[in-house]
Design a protein that fits this description.
The chain is of the alpha+beta class. Helix content is 25%, strand content 24%. The N terminus is likely disordered.
Length: 162
């Protein structure tokens, strides 16, 4: 009986060694490093989503998903702060900047809600740039031009991802 158990153990050991010696093929995924300024990746993500609903369709979800996709991080826990604050009167708007509108009303008839988030996709002066936004109608992403000099009331804060 002991000889039988011993033979069984040797057979199991040889079987285990034969499986262990075979090379195992595993798929390899190579991911490009997320280095440098994430803002261009944020803008590119938003442009690719044009006409689509991102997440639950809320305005801030577009920016949030773009940040995740670009490997960008926020400076804190405030859901409406996206990076370093930018003064559009002194600095050009750049693709990837995030704009927070608060009860904004513009002379061209544009009105935002109490809090609305959009992402700059085509930079430029505060008089002419393009944003990607959602939360209007079917909640699909749309791209449109903006002019901050037409702000009549409310406030606008621009953030630049770091």
């Amino acid at each position: 009986m002991v000889a039988l158990v011993r033979a069984f153990c040797v057979a199991i050991t040889l079987l285990a060694v034969s499986f262990a010696s075979k090379p195992v093929s595993t798929p390899t995924t190579v991911t490009a490093p997320r280095s440098g300024n994430p803002a261009p990746r944020v803008a590119a993500y938003c442009q690719k989503q044009s006409g689509k609903k991102v997440g639950n369709g809320d305005c801030w979800t577009l920016a949030d998903e773009a940040f995740k996709s670009a490997g960008a991080t926020r400076p804190g826990s405030d859901m409406r702060v996206w990076g370093r604050e930018v003064n559009p009167a002194k600095e050009a708007l750049k693709p990837g900047d995030v704009i927070e509108f608060r009860n904004a009303w513009f002379s061209d008839g544009t009105i935002t809600g109490s809090a609305h988030t959009a992402v700059v996709v085509t930079g430029g002066s505060r008089e002419k740039f393009s944003i990607a936004e959602q939360n209007w109608g079917k909640k699909n992403v749309r791209i449109r031009e903006m002019d901050l000099t037409k702000l009549v009331s409310g406030s606008v804060t621009v953030y630049r991802p770091q």
